[in-house]
């Protein structure tokens, strides 16, 4: 059995389109880290590349990035939709999003430990903060979520080691 060029071309085009769409989905911009006070913000990309932001400056944040606040400082992140997020010292979160036909993009912040403050100014855009015990969904609000461990630490880490 031989493959004719006319049959191979659509298959090749479909594979290329799949590869490009997968690459684009992994690199969707989510916002910008704008300022870090009293520590450093470590951004770990989905591919494992690490970048730190100290002091004033800007660093693009993409969907799938894990943000780790090192030290006791604070970091300010602004999403592309205009929501302000602040990570307090020793916090770890991951940035995700969900798209719905009627609502558009909803940002999702997955907390692993620490504390997150958020100010959502647009009543049409939502923000969800996921923790191991529940999900907070808000629109046009100012919220603060602190993940407290039942094992003794306010940061969610096990203190029994």
Task: Give a quick precis of the structure.
With 161 residues, this protein is mostly beta strands. The chain has one domain: Jelly Rolls (Sandwich).
Radius of gyration from the CA trace?
A: 19 Å
Structural class: mainly beta
User: What level of helicity do the residues show?
Assistant: 10-25%
Write the element-wise H/E pattern from the N-terminal end onward. Answer: HEEEEEEEEEEEE
In whole angstroms, how far apart are the ends? 64 Å
SS elements, strand count: 12
> How large is the count of helical segments?
1
Given as residue ranges, the uncertain stretches (5+ residues, pLDDT < 50) are 18-25
Mean of residue pLDDT values: 83
| Total discrete domains | 1
- In the CATH hierarchy, what is the architecture at level 2? Sandwich
Strand content: over 45%
Q: What is the CATH T-level topology?
A: Jelly Rolls
Quick one: biggest sheet? 12 strands, mixed
Overall 3D geometry?
A: globular
CATH class category name: Mainly Beta
Describe the structure.
The protein is mostly beta strands and 161 residues long. It has one domain (30-147): Jelly Rolls (Sandwich). Helices cover 14% and strands 53% of the residues. It has one helix at 5-26, and strands spanning 29-37, 40-44, 50-53, 56-62, 66-70, 74-79, 84-88, 92-100, 104-120, 126-131, 134-139, 141-147. Strands 1, 2, 3, 4, 5, 6, 7, 8, 9, 10, 11 and 12 form a 12-stranded mixed sheet that branches. The N and C termini lie far apart (64 Å). The model is unreliable at 18-25 (pLDDT under 50).
């Amino acid at each position: 059995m031989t493959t004719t060029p006319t049959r191979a071309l659509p298959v090749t085009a479909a594979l290329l389109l799949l590869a490009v769409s997968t690459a684009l989905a992994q690199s969707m911009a989510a916002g910008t880290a704008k300022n870090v006070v009293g520590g450093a913000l470590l951004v770990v990309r989905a591919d494992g590349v690490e970048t730190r932001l100290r002091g004033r400056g800007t660093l693009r944040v993409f969907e799938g990035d894990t943000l780790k606040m090192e030290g006791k400082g604070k970091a300010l992140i602004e999403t592309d939709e205009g929501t302000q997020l602040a990570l307090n010292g020793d916090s770890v979160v991951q940035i995700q999003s969900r798209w719905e036909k009627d609502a558009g993009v909803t940002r999702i912040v997955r907390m692993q430990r620490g504390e997150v403050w958020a100010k959502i100014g647009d009543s049409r855009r939502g923000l969800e903060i996921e923790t191991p015990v529940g999900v907070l969904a808000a629109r046009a609000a100012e919220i603060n979520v602190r993940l407290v461990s039942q094992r003794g630490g306010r940061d969610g880490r096990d203190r029994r080691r």
